[in-house]
Specification:
Structural class: mainly alpha
Strand content: under 5%
Number of strands: 0
Shape: elongated
Length: 186
């Protein structure tokens, strides 16, 4: 199965995808929300571009929509992401088609993971962390169960603004096509 693609050969789709993700990234970063007014017109535009390729183009757009949107739909059902993230990724899938959608999704997930790590590191209270690890080490000789009791996580709710990760993942695939997630397994 050939997984190669070249986004430079589809400039209208690439331009629509960039415009859609940049608007979504700015709105998601500022307001924590990706509105339907961004995703729905872009989704329609993606299917209109795909229609130029006939039924095969529409089929690839639908396959891209499913490939990019399904993992986010599952995450949404589990409460791990918002509906705007699902619609944005599904829209990107419809605009780009199957293989580019998979590549952009993987790149976006990787970028989102890096953003999450830096976000967590920025929020860490280092003195509390050092004290907890020290207490854990002191209690370890008494038994792992007793020592682990000091490691109970605090309840916090921090999220990654995935619109930003999607935009950066798309730019990664556009400007570094030889170093995308799919290119590394070809």
């Amino acid at each position: 199965m050939d997984t190669t693609y070249d986004l430079t050969l589809m400039p209208a789709a690439a331009a629509l995808a960039v415009a859609c993700t940049m608007i979504a990234a700015v709105l998601d970063h500022r307001h924590g929300h990706i509105p339907n007014a961004v995703t729905y017109p872009c989704l329609l535009g993606g299917f209109m571009l795909a229609a130029v390729g006939g039924l095969a183009g529409i089929g690839l757009a639908f396959a891209g929509l499913l490939a990019a949107g399904l993992i986010f739909f599952i995450a949404f059902a589990a409460g791990s992401c918002g509906g705007g993230d699902v619609k944005l990724m599904a829209t990107l899938g419809a605009i780009l088609g199957l293989w580019p959608a998979i590549d952009v999704t993987l790149a976006s997930l990787m970028v989102g993971g890096v953003i999450a790590v830096f976000s967590m590191a920025r929020r860490v209270q280092w003195s509390v962390l050092a004290r907890t690890i020290g207490l854990f080490a002191l209690l370890l000789p008494a038994g792992f169960r007793d020592a682990a009791s000091v490691l109970k996580p605090r309840e916090t709710h921090h999220t990654v603004r995935f619109g930003v990760a999607a935009a950066l993942g798309l730019l990664w695939c556009l400007f570094m096509p030889d170093f995308t997630p799919l290119s590394l397994v070809r």
